[in-house]
Amino acid sequence: MLFTVVYRSRLRGAITHIQLSELDRRARERNEALGVTGVLLFDGSHFFQLLEGPETAVQDTYARIVEDSRHQHVVYLLKDYAPARKFSQWGMKLFDVRDQTAAETEALVHRLVAGISLSEADRAFKLILAFVTGRWRDHAAEADDAAKWTLETRSSGFADAQIAAAGSVPCQFALQPIVSTATESISSLEALIRSPTGGSPQECFDRVPRDRLHLFDLESKRQAFELAAAIGLGTCKLSVNLLPASLTGIPGAVQRLVRLVEEQGLHPRQIVIEVTEEEAITHFDSFAKALVQLRVAGFSVAIDDFGAGFAGLSLLSRFQPEKLKIDRAIVTEIHRDGPRQAIVKAVVECCRSLGITTIAEGVETIDEWRWLNAVGIDLFQGFLFARPKLNGVPDVSWPIAR
Ligand code: C2E
Ligand code: MN
Ligand code: MN
Fold first, then answer.
1. Distance 304 CA to ligand 2 centre (A)
2. How confident is the model at residue 164, as a pLDDT?
3. Please, which residues bridge with residue 180 across strands?
4. Which of 12, 137, 208, 350 has the most Cβ atoms closer than 10 angstroms to its Cβ?
């Protein structure tokens, strides 16, 4: 199967014209041997390459480029299958578009369309055009080097808590910080349910009879609020997860929630209710009623796992939460993934217009954090900063510029 990869990368350091043509010569030999054709563009700081050929050969070549220390910020822009090669006549051609005039750029674009079977409607053509005209810089974000950052682990300064598993079906909670790296502060602690032995939410819910699941979900929050009170929440918020049906399917659920909060000497304005995107949209009409009650009582609402469900941005046309949490599936490896970058940029832009705070979930690497920070994500959560800690607040690892 004929496979195509298009990527962009930034040259580490500088390169002379002679070094560049030498690099090109060696790469061409290797590509010829592997049956990889395409085009390589260089604009003085960035490479842009289209690789086409047998899938494994293209994937292997791309994997080698990602690992090559001369390339940094390698971002794939397109991965696609095609019935035939577009660059077969060329082999792998290099164009050095440094200091190129507009007329030369136009001539190059003309050669691309006329010389090979590339249509102006092809995504590949549009990407090439954006690169040679420098327009890609208007809509692409690039973070600085992860190597410039290191982590410093510090205590979060909360009190220790001694909370025993309790309730009709006993459960307990782990806390994971949601942080602002700009102010080096914890914005919120997310309470994640655990079984009495510290097992996963699924393990915990599996022990609850089906018909009592929503009541259990609601009532379990008593433990979360008790833990929040025990550690001394202060100005930090507590985020709790609820199935929308735990609010809509139980009469007086919001009032019950308010009472559970107040019993621990807390106030609803200290609490963020997280509801997943998918659940919010599938039960939207009844959920909308619960939302009104939550807002009247003073709770904040966050959409959880945004991007994992079905609604996408159309959800925001129906209601606008205070916070929007971008799902880990989109965050993972974001610094290398052009389509995900475009999605996150659009989401950030949309949230900024609407005054919604953006949170990136599941941040595990400095590279991911740097990129997300560069496009203006407000808050971060993930193993990079802290893992959830049972019955307490974990130490937080803060990124520090070297
Ligand atoms: P969630 O609300 O999206 O919570 C984040 C989950 O991602 C947590 O898993 C957390 O441990 C994990 N996580 C955080 N940072 C990272 C990271 O950097 N890498 C990776 N690989 N994972 C990370 P957990 O605790 O297993 O919870 C899973 C889900 O269970 C939660 O996802 C939430 O939807 C649900 N859940 C948890 N507690 C409750 C609850 O009290 N009620 C309800 N209805 N659902 C809950
Ligand atoms: Mn959550
Ligand atoms: Mn989530």
1. 5
2. 87
3. 185
4. 208
Q: Using CA positions, which residue lies closest to atom 45 of ligand 1?
A: 241
Q: Which residues, other chains included, contact 262 with Cβ-Cβ below 8 Å and sequence gap of 6+? A: none
**How many angstroms is it from 134 CA to the middle of ligand 1?**
41
Mean pLDDT score, 182-206: 97
pLDDT at 201: 97
Q: Tell me the ligand closest to 274's alpha carbon.
A: 2
Centre of ligand 2 to C-alpha 99, Å, is 50
Q: What SS3 string covers the chain?
A: CEEEEEEEEEECCCCCHHHHHHHHHHHHHHHHHHCCEEEEEECCCEEEEEEEEEHHHHHHHHHHHHHCCCEEEEEEEEEEEECCCCCCCCCEEEEECCCCCHHHHHHHHHHHHHHCCCCCCCHHHHHHHHHHCCCHHHHCCCCCCHHHEEEEEECCCCCCCCCCCECCCCEEEEEEEEEECCCCEEEEEEEEEECCCCCCHHHHHHCCCHHHHHHHHHHHHHHHHHHHHHHCCCCCEEEEECCHHHHHCCCCHHHHHHHHHHHCCCCHHHEEEEEEHHHHHHCHHHHHHHHHHHHHHCCEEEEEEECCCCCCCHHHHHCCCCEEEECHHHHCCHHHEHHHHHHHHHHHHHHHHHCCEEEECCCCCHHHHHHHHHCCCCEECCCCCCCCEECCCCCEEEEEEC
192 CA closest ligand 1 atom index:
38
pLDDT for 272 beyond 90: yes
User: What is the 275 CA–ligand 3 centroid distance (Å)?
Assistant: 9
Q: Whose CA is nearest to atom 19 of ligand 1?
A: 362
pLDDT tier for residue 114 given thresholds of 50, 70 and 90:
confident
Paired tokens of 361: 């979930």
Ligand 1 atom index nearest CA of 327: 3
| Ligand nearest to C-alpha 362 | 1
Instruction: State the closest ligand 1 atom to the C-alpha of 274, by its place in the atom list counted from 1.
Output: 2
Phi first, then psi, for residue 48 (nearest 5°) are: -140, 125
Point out the ligand nearest to the CA of residue 192: 1
- Of 176, 192, 221, the residue with max ligand 1 atoms within 8 A of its CB, to mutate for a pocket test, comes to 192
Cβ within 8 Å of residue 389, ≥6 positions away: 174, 175, 176
